[in-house]
Amino acid sequence: MADTQQSAGWRGVRACEVELFWATSRASRSGSACHFWHTCHRFTLTDIESPALAVEVPRSQPLFHTFSDAVEIRDFQKRLLSWYSKCKRDLPWRKLAATETDDDRRAYAVWVSEIMLQQTQVASVINYYNRWMQKWPTLQDLAEASLEEVNELWAGLGYYSRGKRLQEGAHKVVSQLEGHMPRTAEELQKQLPGVGKYTAGAIASIAFGQVTGVVDGNVTRVLCRTRAIGTDPANSAAADTLWALAHTLVDQTHPGDFNQAMMELGATVCTPKTPLCMECPVKQHCRDRLNSTKRLLGKTVSKSLPVLDMEECAAVSGSCSLCLPPSVPWEPSLGVTNFPRKTTKKQPRTEHTATCVLQRRCSDGNPEYFLVRRASSGLLAGLWEFPSILLEQGQEKQQKVILTDHLLASLGNDLAVRQLQYVGEVLHIFSHIRQTYLIYFLNVDKDEENWNKNVELPASRWVTKAEFQISAISTAMKKVRKI
């Protein structure tokens, strides 16, 4: 061990477990500390009564950012699966995956859940999932549904192309694949529209038991922290590394449970901002946590215990593409949340749309609203909305004139040139757009619906308030109606 005369510095440290990694002389000639074969020394500080009792137990540890030790991998799997069996959330798609005996129905249930969960929180998905599976419990049921029905049920969940692709995929399975879901991740990704590498791996491992890893946002966070990967996880080299780690770690006997456990860990324990490290079942294998602990104890032990950490790993040669770059050093105040490094997000563009809430009163005095269908491609494809026009930059001051001209041209009726009443605006934020709706109101009598027969109207209809609520209408339009 290092200079034993420094041992007094150990006694003031409170009980905690720290793993100390030192670079040995077996460094590769590349000069990169990441390519050292390290010797791992593990101590429980409260067990060290005197330096004489601190016996080194070296263990070969390969590349700093990998899982290559079979003993460590087995321990990681065992700890994680044990935790998952006790702590997993009770979710409807997990029940179906565990109890459904028909392979195709089980895969379908997993598929629907994975598509709904893309970019959407679990709490928001549960009700939609239950209603979906009640309405279309099998692939055959969904294949027979219309896109309008799918959009109606999906309304409010966002990213509407997901529902469309699910319906298209179900139709393909029934009409071209004899009703049988592809059995491997490779075939799932190849055959089903909207199914990428992650979704394919999730379906294959959970529904069919294929031994394959998965990488989503939650898994990325767990892997980046456990292996101290500090580069942007979105770049191709980091992504390849993360997938390789996921495939290496996945349990051979219970791949589906293991993958769900990794996602569960990232969602509930290894969270982005407030990770519960002391509750983590695999904290013993987390290099991020160990590094943070070393740094907190650095003033006490740094002179006697020179340790290799991820910052030094990059600083030694600057050649490690997976470490924190020298330009973005480890930040003490962030602790374990230094990893993963946040991807710089592109700021959403700003748009303004002039919208007309066109209303009429029926004989019973209740209102009806005039809706038109959006184009079959692009944002909010195929959904219903109030007559609207996207304003070009700088047209905001002419919004009323532009909306009036749009109504006249598209509806072909002189009601469009009547006085529009401005009622306010609504901001709705899409993933990539800050959309401001500039809202006008126009009330028309029932006898004023004589549209110009020479004008080709878009798909349109009048709906009651009740029909409005259950139609395939975006959350943004529901905000518009409420103003």
Automatic annotation (TrEMBL):
<dbReference type="GO" id="GO:0032357">
    <property type="term" value="F:oxidized purine DNA binding"/>
</dbReference>
<dbReference type="InterPro" id="IPR000445">
    <property type="entry name" value="HhH_motif"/>
</dbReference>
<comment type="similarity">
    <text>Belongs to the Nth/MutY family.</text>
</comment>
<dbReference type="InterPro" id="IPR003265">
    <property type="entry name" value="HhH-GPD_domain"/>
</dbReference>
<keyword id="KW-0408">Iron</keyword>
<dbReference type="Pfam" id="PF00633">
    <property type="entry name" value="HHH"/>
</dbReference>
<dbReference type="GO" id="GO:0032407">
    <property type="term" value="F:MutSalpha complex binding"/>
</dbReference>
<dbReference type="Pfam" id="PF14815">
    <property type="entry name" value="NUDIX_4"/>
</dbReference>
<dbReference type="GO" id="GO:0035485">
    <property type="term" value="F:adenine/guanine mispair binding"/>
</dbReference>
<keyword id="KW-0227">DNA damage</keyword>
<comment type="function">
    <text>Adenine glycosylase active on G-A mispairs.</text>
</comment>
<dbReference type="InterPro" id="IPR015797">
    <property type="entry name" value="NUDIX_hydrolase-like_dom_sf"/>
</dbReference>
<dbReference type="InterPro" id="IPR029119">
    <property type="entry name" value="MutY_C"/>
</dbReference>
<feature type="domain" description="Nudix hydrolase">
    <location>
        <begin position="348"/>
        <end position="483"/>
    </location>
</feature>
<dbReference type="InterPro" id="IPR003651">
    <property type="entry name" value="Endonuclease3_FeS-loop_motif"/>
</dbReference>
<keyword id="KW-0411">Iron-sulfur</keyword>
<dbReference type="InterPro" id="IPR023170">
    <property type="entry name" value="HhH_base_excis_C"/>
</dbReference>
<protein>
    <recommendedName>
        <fullName>Adenine DNA glycosylase</fullName>
        <ecNumber>3.2.2.31</ecNumber>
    </recommendedName>
</protein>
<dbReference type="GO" id="GO:0005739">
    <property type="term" value="C:mitochondrion"/>
</dbReference>
<dbReference type="GO" id="GO:0060546">
    <property type="term" value="P:negative regulation of necroptotic process"/>
</dbReference>
<dbReference type="GO" id="GO:0006284">
    <property type="term" value="P:base-excision repair"/>
</dbReference>
<keyword id="KW-0378">Hydrolase</keyword>
<dbReference type="GO" id="GO:0006298">
    <property type="term" value="P:mismatch repair"/>
</dbReference>
<dbReference type="GO" id="GO:0005654">
    <property type="term" value="C:nucleoplasm"/>
</dbReference>
<dbReference type="InterPro" id="IPR044298">
    <property type="entry name" value="MIG/MutY"/>
</dbReference>
<keyword id="KW-0539">Nucleus</keyword>
<dbReference type="GO" id="GO:0046872">
    <property type="term" value="F:metal ion binding"/>
</dbReference>
<dbReference type="Pfam" id="PF00730">
    <property type="entry name" value="HhH-GPD"/>
</dbReference>
<keyword id="KW-0234">DNA repair</keyword>
<comment type="function">
    <text>Involved in oxidative DNA damage repair. Initiates repair of A*oxoG to C*G by removing the inappropriately paired adenine base from the DNA backbone. Possesses both adenine and 2-OH-A DNA glycosylase activities.</text>
</comment>
<dbReference type="InterPro" id="IPR000086">
    <property type="entry name" value="NUDIX_hydrolase_dom"/>
</dbReference>
<dbReference type="GO" id="GO:0000701">
    <property type="term" value="F:purine-specific mismatch base pair DNA N-glycosylase activity"/>
</dbReference>
<dbReference type="GO" id="GO:0034039">
    <property type="term" value="F:8-oxo-7,8-dihydroguanine DNA N-glycosylase activity"/>
</dbReference>
<dbReference type="GO" id="GO:0051539">
    <property type="term" value="F:4 iron, 4 sulfur cluster binding"/>
</dbReference>
<keyword id="KW-0326">Glycosidase</keyword>
<dbReference type="InterPro" id="IPR011257">
    <property type="entry name" value="DNA_glycosylase"/>
</dbReference>
<keyword id="KW-0479">Metal-binding</keyword>
<keyword id="KW-0496">Mitochondrion</keyword>
<dbReference type="InterPro" id="IPR004036">
    <property type="entry name" value="Endonuclease-III-like_CS2"/>
</dbReference>
<keyword id="KW-0004">4Fe-4S</keyword>
